[in-house]
Amino acid sequence: MIAMLKCYECAENGANEEAVAVCITCGMGLCMEHAIRYDLSIWEGGYPAPVKILKKGLPRFLCSYCRDTIIPGACE
Ligand SMILES: [Zn+2]
Ligand SMILES: [Zn+2]
After folding, report:
1. What's the pTM?
2. What is the tens place of the pLDDT at every residue in 49-64?
3. Residue 40: inside a domain, yes or no?
4. 30 and 22 in contact (C-beta within 8 Å)?
5. What is the pLDDT of residue 42?
6. What is the pLDDT of residue 41?
7. Separation between Cα atoms, residue 33 and residue 12, nearest integer Å
8. Which bound ligand lies closest to the C-alpha atom of 26?
9. N or C: which end of the chain has fewer CB within 10 A?
10. Is 42 contained in some domain?
11. Who's near 65: CB < 8 A, 6+ residues apart?
12. What is the predicted pLDDT for the residue at 69?
């Protein structure tokens, strides 16, 4: 029995939002509001992220924590 994945960031705020994506680096469940999608071109710049374990064509989603950690200067 697999439970429905919930957004971790919403859960931290006491909300109960269904996850629509998963962070590629930490596996955190993310809702539409919290999932951060990056275009493939960004990942082709040689960032030392573990994206190479993923097959080509998959969407890349990050949580805000990993976004701030992996992508320098990407903070809003
Ligand atoms: Zn959320
Ligand atoms: Zn993450």
Report:
1. 0.64
2. 555 554 555 567 889 9
3. yes
4. yes
5. 47
6. 47
7. 14
8. 2
9. N
10. yes
11. 26, 28
12. 83
Count of the separate structural domains present in the chain: 1
| Ligand approaching nearest to the C-alpha of 28 | 2
Residue 16 structural domain: 8-70
Q: Is 76 domain-assigned?
A: no
CB count within 10 Å of CB 8 equals 20
17-44 pLDDT, tens digit per residue, is 999 999 988 999 999 999 998 755 444 5
For ligand 2, the distance from its centroid to the CA atom of residue 2, given in whole angstroms, is 21
Q: Does residue 2 fall inside a structural domain?
A: no
Q: Which two tokens stand for residue 11?
A: 């859960």
Question: Is the pLDDT assigned to residue 66 strictly greater than 60?
Answer: yes
Say how far apart CA 26 and CA 17 lie, in whole Å: 18
| Distance from Cα 75 to the centre of ligand 1, integer Å | 18
Number of Cβ within a 10 Å radius of residue 34: 23
Ligand 1 centre to CA of 13 (Å) is 9
